[in-house]
């Protein structure tokens, strides 16, 4: 039987962590694109669009991410679409993030005082001009800290993709544990790597929140 | 024809009847102060005049255009009417100059240099030409409100609506804003103000409209209304505020 040194364990975990990072980036980028679309639908004042996006958000916020992963992986398989764990994980995490991001961003748009809309209206700006020149530039500023903060949730959420057989950090940890029978050491390393990924993000979020709220005073 | 004609206007908030058949004509060049207790419907009436608030019955014609909350109609109205708010509502992410230049460039299609000249001109009018590049947050409340007035004036409205524009200001800053209004009045601008500044209403205003319980209770030339109020309610109100 092959012997694993500590360095072997760490090296394999770090290699697997690449996939955690890549999956997080895909989920964040995809979630941002879909989320942006949803945000615009949500603030469009067209009731059909608003209801649709609200249902969408409720579904993805009201069910465990794990179930969403299962449904993406096994559900699509059932209807004859063969999906790899990669595709299923990327898809489920994208939809999951989009629901949360659009909710965060909608909140940012709605947090702006009504007077900004009224002043724009009185000056003769139409809806799109008000959005483009008045609302979005201000909402963007408010939105950055919570958006960066949510990216931590995405990184941690990728751990669940291990269950459908996607080999990322957590899955690699499980496999290494099966080979070494040193669960504490292996999972401590896994946790440490997650922490090293997430900590800079949450620090950045705090920093941005502090900085942006100070400069708006 | 009057610049503003309000005929039998009614408005409800649910079951609450807030405007009960308002009739009012305002001529070009008039300075009209709308006074009354809070809840008398004065701000609502003002907001109905430029389509920010919808009314349920009657008609309001402003500069020959019927007022409605329809998006297209509001844009047409904004050519004739400007509004200044209690809370200034400046755009905090834009400089003073950008606040003023935005609408002339976007709506009137004015070139940047022309809009800048216009903005400086308007800022000069309110005595703040040196604040062109500042952000609103760096300005005092009185200065912010003067910028808001300059922003409205840059669209060359025929009538300026002022909704309690000194109520959010520290007492020592009220004077500088009223001075700007006084100057506008002397230049012939039509002003319709909802105000608690009774001295201003009496000394600068041409006419006073006293609203009570959703109705125009009493109206007349400013000096007469204050010197000899006809109704018991107005006598009581003036007694309480002066």
Question: How would you characterize this protein structure?
Answer:
- The complex is a heterodimer of chains A (217) and B (242).
- Chain A has 217 residues and is an all-alpha fold.
- Chain A contains eight helices and no strands.
- Chain A has one domain: MetI-like fold.
- Chain A starts with 5 loop residues before the first helix and ends with a helix.
- The mean pLDDT of chain A is 91.
- Chain A is elongated, with a radius of gyration of 21 Å.
- With 242 residues, chain B is an alpha/beta fold.
- Chain B folds into two domains: 124 residues, 3-Layer(aba) Sandwich (Rossmann fold), CATH 3.40.50.300; 67 residues, ABC transporter ATPase like fold (Up-down Bundle).
- Chain B has a six-stranded mixed sheet with strand order 6-7-8-3-9-10, with helices on both faces. A four-stranded antiparallel sheet of chain B has the order 2-1-4-5, covered by helices on one side.
- In chain B, helix 3 runs parallel beside helix 5 and helix 4 packs across helix 5.
- Classes of the chains: A mainly alpha (217), B alpha/beta (242).
- Chain A: Belongs to the binding-protein-dependent transport system permease family. HisMQ subfamily.
- Chain A: Keywords: Cell membrane, Membrane, Transmembrane, Transmembrane helix, Transport.
């Amino acid at each position: 039987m092959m012997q694993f040194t500590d360095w072997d364990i760490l090296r394999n975990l770090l290699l697997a962590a690449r996939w955690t990072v890549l999956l997080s980036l895909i989920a964040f980028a995809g979630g941002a694109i879909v989320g942006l679309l949803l945000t615009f639908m949500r603030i469009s004042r067209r009731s059909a669009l608003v209801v649709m996006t609200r249902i969408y958000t409720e579904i993805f916020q009201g069910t465990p991410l794990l179930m969403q992963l299962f449904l993406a992986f096994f559900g699509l398989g059932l209807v004859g679409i063969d999906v790899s764990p990669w595709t299923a994980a990327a898809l489920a995490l994208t939809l999951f993030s989009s629901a949360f991001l659009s909710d965060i961003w909608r909140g940012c748009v709605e947090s702006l005082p009504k007077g900004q809309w009224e002043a724009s209206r009185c000056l003769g700006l139409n809806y799109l001009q008000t959005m483009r020149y008045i609302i979005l530039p201000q909402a963007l500023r408010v939105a950055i800290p919570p958006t960066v903060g949510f990216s931590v949730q995405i990184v941690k959420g990728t751990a669940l993709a291990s269950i459908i057989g996607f080999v990322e950090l957590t899955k690699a940890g499980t496999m290494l544990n099966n080979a070494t029978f040193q669960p504490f050491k292996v999972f401590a390393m896994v946790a440490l790597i997650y922490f090293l990924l997430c900590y800079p993000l949450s620090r950045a979020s705090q920093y941005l929140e502090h900085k942006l709220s100070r400069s708006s005073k | 024809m009057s610049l503003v004609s309000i005929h039998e206007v009614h408005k409800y908030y649910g079951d609450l009847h807030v405007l009960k058949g308002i009739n009012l004509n305002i001529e070009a060049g008039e300075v009209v102060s709308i006074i009354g207790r809070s809840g008398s419907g004065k701000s609502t009436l003002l907001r109905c005049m430029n389509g920010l608030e919808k009314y349920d019955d009657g008609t309001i014609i402003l500069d020959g255009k019927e007022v409605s909350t329809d998006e297209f109609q509001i844009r047409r109205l904004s050519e004739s009417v400007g509004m200044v708010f209690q809370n200034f509502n400046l755009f905090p992410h834009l400089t003073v100059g950008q606040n003023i230049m935005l609408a002339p460039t976007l709506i009137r299609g004015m070139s940047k240099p022309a809009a800048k000249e216009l903005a400086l001109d308007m800022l000069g009018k309110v005595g703040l030409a040196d604040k062109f590049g500042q952000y609103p947050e760096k300005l005092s409340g009185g200065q912010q409100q003067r910028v808001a007035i300059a922003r409205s004036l840059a669209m060359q409205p025929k009538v300026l609506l002022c909704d309690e524009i000194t109520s959010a200001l520290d007492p020592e800053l009220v004077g500088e804003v009223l001075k700007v209004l006084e100057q506008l009045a002397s230049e012939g601008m039509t002003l319709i103000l909802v105000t608690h500044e009774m001295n201003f209403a009496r000394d600068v205003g041409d006419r006073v409209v006293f609203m009570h319980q959703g109705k125009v209770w009493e109206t007349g030339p400013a000096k007469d209304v204050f010197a000899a109020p006809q109704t018991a309610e107005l006598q009581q109100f003036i007694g309480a505020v002066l």
